[in-house]
Design a protein that fits this description.
The chain is an all-alpha fold and 271 residues long. It has 10 helices and no strands. Helix 2 runs parallel beside helix 5 and helix 4 packs antiparallel against helix 5. It starts with a helix and ends in a 13-residue tail after the last helix.
Length: 271
């Protein structure tokens, strides 16, 4: 007859070894590398799809429509938010990290590391594509359309990023923090913005997404547009967020912006 006390002891040891200890290890602040790996991997996947559409279209003409090329990044962002948003917040974009920091939902000391690995992930994706698809990474980058000035592209990137960051901050705040619905909102916005805005500027809304192909393709001719436009749009979106919802720093926004790994709160008593 099995000793119930022995069985109880075995279960307790299993819970401690296989459940509690791994959870404690995951939440150890020394595991910051998990966040950074998450951001690098997520940005790699985003740029793999975003730049890959143009590069595959160049390698295989008439196989990828503009509609498919601009919708695919939205679907990828949706998937990345769902599968690893709890680890790093799934920013995948330097201006998103900065916007969360401006909202006090993300600590400033984490911003440089996030931006570095986002640029790294984007560059590795562009390098992979150029090596495998065998066309220049410039075909996967963003440039102002022929006949349109850098200024026109700047304003397009500004307005599109204003909308993107507004959606991100809005779905990451208090009663509007809807989890899966947030992923659908962000992914849907990226696809919708691309469908109507891509002909003029390429709908980057992300300095890392454009940096990777520009670096590997060695063409930074109009890159300032894809830094200045998204940064300005994100700054205004953060100001709008204050008007709409007041200051950030509460539990909902911080959890969305940082993930569940060692989350820091500027206002721990605020929802």
């Amino acid at each position: 007859m099995t000793d119930p006390h022995a069985a109880d002891s075995v279960i307790k040891r299993w819970v401690q070894t296989d459940v509690i200890r791994p959870m404690e290890d995951f939440n150890d602040p020394r595991q910051e590398w998990r966040r950074l790996f998450s951001e690098a991997f997520g940005t790699f996947l985003l740029v793999l799809v975003a730049a890959g559409g143009g590069m595959m279209g160049q390698a295989f003409p008439d196989t990828i429509s503009r509609q498919a090329a601009v919708v695919a990044p939205g679907l990828m962002v949706m998937a990345v938010i769902l599968f690893m948003g709890k680890v790093s917040g799934a920013h995948l974009n330097p201006v998103v990290s900065i916007a969360f920091a401006l909202r006090r939902d993300f600590p400033w000391w984490r911003v440089p590391g996030y931006i570095i690995v986002q640029l790294l992930g984007a560059s590795l994706a562009a390098l992979f594509l150029q090596s495998v698809v065998n066309v220049s990474a410039t075909y996967g980058s963003n440039y102002p359309a022929s006949g349109y000035s850098n200024g026109s592209a700047f304003w397009m990137e500004f307005v599109l990023t204003l909308g993107l960051v507004s959606v991100i901050l809005g779905t990451a705040s208090g009663a509007q923090n809807d989890g899966i619905i947030g992923a659908l909102g962000v992914g849907g916005y990226i696809a919708l913005a691309g469908l109507w805005g891509s002909p003029i500027s390429g709908t980057s809304m992300n300095p890392a997404r454009t940096f990777g192909p520009d670096l590997i393709g060695a063409d930074f001719a109009s890159y300032w547009v894809y830094i200045a436009g998204p940064l300005a749009g994100a700054a205004v979106a953060t100001a709008f967020g204050f008007v709409l919802r007041g200051q950030g720093g509460g539990r909902a926004g911080s959890a969305a912006g940082q993930g569940a790994l060692d989350t820091e709160y500027a206002e721990p008593t605020k929802a």
